[in-house]
Amino acid sequence: MSKTIVYKFGGASVKDADAMKNLLDILRNRLRKNMVIVVSAMGKTTNSLEEILRLKMEGEDFSSNYTILKEFHLSICHQLFPDSHRVFAVLDNLFTSMSKQLNAELSEDNYDEYYDSIIGFGELFSSTIVMEYLCENDLLVLWQDARELIKTNSDFRFAKIDWAKTRKNCQTKLKAKIENFPVVTQGFIGSDSQSRPTTLGREGSDFTAAILASCLKASSVTIWKDVPGVLNADPKKFSSYFLFEELDYKQAAEMTYYGASVIHPKTIMPLANARIPLFVKSFISPEDPGTKIHSTSSNSSISTYVLKEKQLLISFRVTDFTFIEEEQIHRVYEELKSLKLRVNMLQISAISISIVLDEQPFKLDRLLNRLKNDFEIRYNSNLELLTILHPEKSGMDSVMKDYEVFLEQQTRNTFQVVRRKNMLS
What we know:
Radius of gyration: 23 Å
CATH superfamily of the largest domain: Acetylglutamate kinase-like
Keywords: Amino-acid biosynthesis, ATP-binding, Kinase, Nucleotide-binding, Transferase
Oligomer: single chain
Family: Belongs to the aspartokinase family.
CATH class of the largest domain: Alpha Beta
Order of helices and strands: EHEHHHHHEHEEEHEEHHEEEHEEHEHEE
Pfam families: AA_kinase
Catalytic activity: L-aspartate + ATP = 4-phospho-L-aspartate + ADP
Protein name: Aspartokinase
Strand order of the largest sheet: 3-4-2-1-7-9-10-8
Helix content: 25-40%
Distance between the termini: 55 Å
């Protein structure tokens, strides 16, 4: 194990000028050689870029959205830098590059590739500002384009890592740099064999930190969040919650599989394989211990609540009085795979297949068109999927109160319900 450490700062930790000053305070006494700092896009930048893409896809004007996004970043810079600072010229060049890319043709057929060509600009903006701000305050760091390190296949939006090439790049392009200076780089983005931008899945910056840590054989990874560590429930959505002081890799992986937002689902595997501990800490209270995820025999049986919003329930019903067989299941999954739609929940009855997905409107239209001749299809939108790990009976009853229930299922250690708040409650 090397002495290298990896820090990852999410969007909330760089969302405005005050957050940037707080990041500076965190790093002032922690920054050192053999350190990689992975940065997400600032605040809700990725959401703003997705809205621009939606408008572009629907043929609507997105110029005001573009201007607002540019002014958002420039406003932060005006609070952090003198007006003559070079960061303004660098940002202007990045926004000009994004503008040119937005003029390219977009269609349903090339949406995923187009998405990846635009969405990563958020991380390019933020990492540039972070690097320049640290240097402006006498913390000398280098900037590294993650697309030169993280090599992937061409599965746009959900790119799979080419571990051999990525490991080689980290050893030849990154290791020598961090031996002399800390390095700031971007989360979430990579590139394929033709150097086209790719992304690792929404919220994929955690995964980037794990990839780099694995390739550099780092001693630890620390993810800085706006929560005190890994909790058994999202404090923004639940009134009571519990902080885990430590978790085993397997238990953490199970939580992320069902959608726990504190860590990206793919983060755990490379760290567990390399036995690299993961710390989840609060950038609001950086001296607090947070949560340590590592190999431990300690397994908590405390009920854990994972809530996914903006969910879509689709039911495919056979039309010829036969029963559901493997052929029909394969048919549905074949189309889901081609559209890169991930199933969050599945339930099969004698005559129907029901699936729960994240809402993606234009992809829903394509899915329905492709399968309408094979099934009678019904769907409900704007639902919630609540998963309870290690459920207790009292907890299960309370989550059904005041909700309309569309689907539920239970195993020995997991309870899931698809629900919508009653309008009268």
